[in-house]
Design brief:
Blueprint lengths: L3 E6 L5 H13 L3 E6 L3 H4 L2 H8 L15 H7 L3 E7 L1 H9 L5 H8 L4 E5 L3 H5 L1 H12 L3 E2 L3 E4 L5 E5 L3 H13 L12 E7 L3 E2 L5 E2 L6 H12 L3 E7 L9 E6 L2 H12 L4 E4 L6 E3 L20 E3 L3 H7 L7 E8 L7 H12 L3 E6 L10 E8 L4 E8 H17 L1
Parallel strand pairs: 1-2, 1-3, 3-4, 4-5, 8-11, 8-13, 11-12, 13-16, 16-17
Antiparallel strand pairs: 6-7, 9-10, 14-15, 17-18, 18-19
Helix pairs in contact: 1-3, 1-9, 4-6, 5-8, 9-10, 10-14
The structure holds cytidine-5'-triphosphate (CTP).
Cytidine-5'-triphosphate (CTP) binds next to helix 12 and strand 16.
């Protein structure tokens, strides 16, 4: 069955980016009805929306009145996405005003609603907008955090519309969970670490590992699509920032540790999907290490890095927070992959451990994964081979189950 998407566009300069979002929906087979506000049409005109969506476009309730569009469009939608959502549109939606087709549609829709705000930083931070966003979130809407960066003029700050490709991914995540899925992470603050740390030997060389960051980014996206406030601590990952997620960039295990410990103070859940290097060179050369004339190789002395997962689990900032670790294991003479996973769960002191069998080296850089989620309560959930997004949702399901306990 074709999925019916309503794309609401309100009057901000980022309206032009909604054209790309619209294309992504139509090219992936969605049926899209574009409902721009009159102000949006000042930025991008009706012919553009009509041509890209293949449908007539209206801003008002007075066109095709016999078809009752102000009720029909919202009632039949599988998801309503408003991108960009201006401060004015958020205010109207929060207060239930209905003076055009888009605001009427928002009142009649019973499907998930996603707002992607874009505005100047001052407007986003104004107490009126904060209150309106809080109201909408509390009613179950997903309000994506704007991205930081260059705004309309020369100034920079928080308020940019996230990358349309990432808004698309987030909405797809909402749709995949179905109309009945609740935004069960709404109001929750979660922290995800992703990628692999680098330990520098000198200004150009480092010890690193093969982590791509794909699993951590999938976890962050999945949490955002379930309504969470997400901080993604990213170590050396070259993937686009997920929509609505605050990304903190780090390089070394020491930096990752500091960022995770700081973010954990207010977190309801922490998922350590990053692969921190366990060792770092004892001394970092400030100049590039030169080859010796006699052909000898330098000896590299290493020292152990802090174990972040063990530290935040044993010395908890918030007793009720759910802490999740990952374990990439290969079975050996001392035990099977699962035996080693159980032992690691106990050693690290976390609540859940996602155990991957990496004997073949297959998971690195792959979009798929296969795992067993072990709980400190004895639970064991097998996740069959599937996408890293599917595994992410199982992990969040297990986290949410523990919130309820
Ligand atoms: N981890 C961490 N800090 C480290 C190393 C690992 O927080 N210095 C976290 C990883 O993010 C992951 C989990 O610990 O969630 C398991 O990582 P793994 O490398 O399998 O653990 P090790 O401690 O290296 O395991 P072992 O004791 O088998 O060496």
């Amino acid at each position: 069955m074709t999925t019916r998407v309503v794309l609401g566009v309100s009057g901000g300069i980022a309206a032009y980016k909604a054209c790309e979002l619209l294309r992504r929906f139509t090219e992936s087979g969605h049926d899209v009805t574009v409902v721009p506000t009159a102000s949006a049409l000042e930025f991008v005109g009706t012919p553009t929306w009509a041509a890209l969506s293949g449908k007539p476009v209206s801003s008002e309730v007075w066109h095709d009145v016999h078809a009752v569009p102000h009720v029909q469009i919202g009632q039949h939608a599988d998801v309503v996405v408003v991108a960009p959502a201006t401060a004015d549109l958020l205010a109207k939606a929060a207060h239930g005003l209905a003076d055009d087709l888009l605001t009427n549609t928002l009142l009649t829709a019973r499907c998930p609603v996603v707002f992607a705000p874009a505005m100047h930083t001052e407007m986003w931070e104004h107490p009126a907008t904060r209150a309106n966003v809080a109201t909408l979130r509390q009613r179950g809407a997903v309000v994506i955090e704007p991205a930081e960066g260059r705004l309309t003029g020369a100034d920079t700050g928080k308020g940019r519309l996230p990358d349309p490709a990432e808004i698309f991914e987030l909405v797809r995540g909402v749709l995949d969970r179905g109309a009945d899925a609740s935004l069960d992470l709404a109001g929750r603050t979660v922290v995800v670490s992703a990628g692999g740390t680098r330990e520098y030997l000198d200004p150009v060389r480092f010890l690193g590992n093969r982590s791509s960051g794909l699993q951590g980014y999938a976890l962050a996206r999945a949490a955002a699509s379930r309504g969470a406030h997400v901080t993604l601590i990213s170590a050396n990952v070259s993937l686009p920032d997920p929509a609505g997620v605050s990304v903190v960039r780090v390089e070394t295990t020491a930096q990752l540790r500091d960022a995770v410990v700081a973010a954990t103070a207010t977190a309801d859940a922490v998922v350590m999907a990053a692969a921190p290097a366990d060792f770092r060179p004892t001394a970092v050369s400030h100049a590039k290490i030169k080859k010796a004339a006699d052909g000898s190789a330098p000896a590299i002395e290493l020292e152990q890095n802090p174990d972040i997962l063990a530290e935040i689990s044993h010395d908890r900032a918030r007793a009720e927070a759910v802490i999740v670790g990952f374990a990439a294991e290969t079975g050996d003479a001392t035990g099977s992959v699962l035996d080693l996973g159980r032992a690691k769960l106990a050693r690290k002191g976390c609540d859940l451990l996602v155990v991957n069998d990496v004997s073949g080296g297959a998971v690195f850089g792959s979009s798929d994964n296969e795992a067993v989620v072990l709980g400190s309560d004895g639970a064991s959930v097998e996740v069959p081979h599937g996408s890293k997004t599917a595994l992410s949702h199982v992990i969040w399901d297990e986290v949410v189950r523990r919130f309820a306990d």
